[in-house]
Amino acid sequence: MDLPVDSSVVVKAVPSAIAALIVWVIARRFVFPHPLDKVRGPPNPSLLAASQFFAITYKLRDVFLQKTAEGPQEIDFMRWATRVSLEIIAQSGFGTSWDPITEETDEHPFTSSAKLIVPWGKKLLLFRTFVMPLIYKYNLGTPALQRFLIGLTPSTPLKELRNIVDTMHCHSLKLVNEKKEALAKGSGEFRNDHKDILGILMEENAKASEEDRLPDNEVIAQISTFTFAAMDTTSSALCRIFWLLAKHQDVQDKLRAEIREAKQNLNSEEPNYDQLNALPYLDGVIRETLRLYPPGAVVGRECRKDTILPLSKPIKTVDGTDTQEIFIPKDTTIFASLLGSNTNPELWGADTYDWKPERWFSPVPEKVVEARIPGVYSHLMTFLGGGRACIGFKFSLMEMKVLIYVLVDQFKFTPAEQEIIWTMAGFTTPLVDRSKVQPEMPIMISRAD
Ligand code: HEM
């Protein structure tokens, strides 16, 4: 067969091409390997959820593209981060869609309700600390009586919280009933393609023995638990990350460069889970933010038996003596500072209160390793540790990474004029006006070059 070019030229070029290829492979492997090299390969089918997260995030990207068509715009980032977080947990957790995420549609009532639990709850600190535990402990009054009494009180926060609970309950009940109906028709149809958490729970619950089976009200309660645990925390962390990126343009630029390089290297719009995790700057930004600004700064616990708490170093008691341990009587409520552990200068060093994503490019300080912090994530207590640790932390990390990957690539974020007030009661929440209940985080966005 005739070759379209002079065959002698091709034959002479072969050894040079092979030599060039060898040089290129060696250079890529040893001189400037890309972090994604380690994780190339077929996508892991068990981690396909990343593509579901991308699909939801693209809707937000489209809203922002629409908004910035005429130039820079101020947006309430809290509003959009909450909508996306809710939709992600609705689709992956419950196999339903609650929010089309468009400029023209309002947020789902579940979002507007769940988002206000913390701000209204904050106004009832004394009631929650002293009265509610007694109501639970002594099982005072039926739910109907409690609701009736709330109606008689002049307390707006109590009434608001009751309305919030009603809204969330009503939507959760509807969802459980729909799932039950589908379950009755056959599990194949029921699960559809999605192995969502609620679907699996209900399917297994239906098979469980009478004594192991969760009653309906507990299944319904799981929906509120998951929504609340997933939505408020992740949206709070996302707000903080974008606020920091807006304030540190140099970090934002480096992050954008890393994302764009990854896109080019992968030759694809969407990295899979492993590829996303292999981006060091993206990972450093998230780790550092969750270290210095954990969405929940403290957790409360009730001591179930008399306990002696050993201390890492002696403290002075009121009578001036040194002690190495504290006695905590049964039923004492204690608050453990997750923030305090994450930022302890004795472990993390003098620059502990500086936000430095690069910190994570080197091994963590020896003292941090030696302290054996029991947290499930990165020597941090942000997601707690032990039997009650956060079960959604990898889910949340992936959600944040996907959102940052998509948005920072396309948009530039700069601070808005208003000062943000970060309130620390409950989950950390951004506000612009302390007298308002509604969380808000204005930020300027424009198209990135
Ligand atoms: C940045 C995001 C998140 C943070 C900082 C966070 C933090 C925490 C913390 C500190 C706890 C322990 C609370 C306590 O026991 O007092 C917890 C529990 C929990 N989290 Fe998360 N979380 C996040 C995201 C998520 C997501 C996305 C989900 C669900 C998909 C989730 C589901 C849960 C659940 C169900 C629990 C209760 C676990 C149990 O008590 O056994 N979380 N989370």
UniProtKB/TrEMBL annotation:
PANTHER family, per database record: CYTOCHROME P450, CYTOCHROME P450 12A4, MITOCHONDRIAL-RELATED
GO molecular function: heme binding; iron ion binding; monooxygenase activity; oxidoreductase activity, acting on paired donors, with incorporation or reduction of molecular oxygen
Pfam families cross-referenced by the UniProt entry: p450
Alphabetical list of SUPFAM superfamilies matching this protein: Cytochrome P450
Cellular localization per UniProt: Membrane
Annotated GO CC locations: membrane
InterPro entries named in the record: Cyt_P450, Cyt_P450_E_grp-IV, Cyt_P450_sf, Cytochrome_P450_monoxygenase
Highest taxon of source: Eukaryota
Transmembrane segments: 13-31
Cofactors demanded by this protein: heme
Keywords, ordered alphabetically: Heme, Iron, Membrane, Metal-binding, Monooxygenase, Oxidoreductase, Transmembrane, Transmembrane helix
Record protein name field: Cytochrome P450
Family: Belongs to the cytochrome P450 family.
Chain residues that bind heme: C390
Pathway: Secondary metabolite biosynthesis; terpenoid biosynthesis
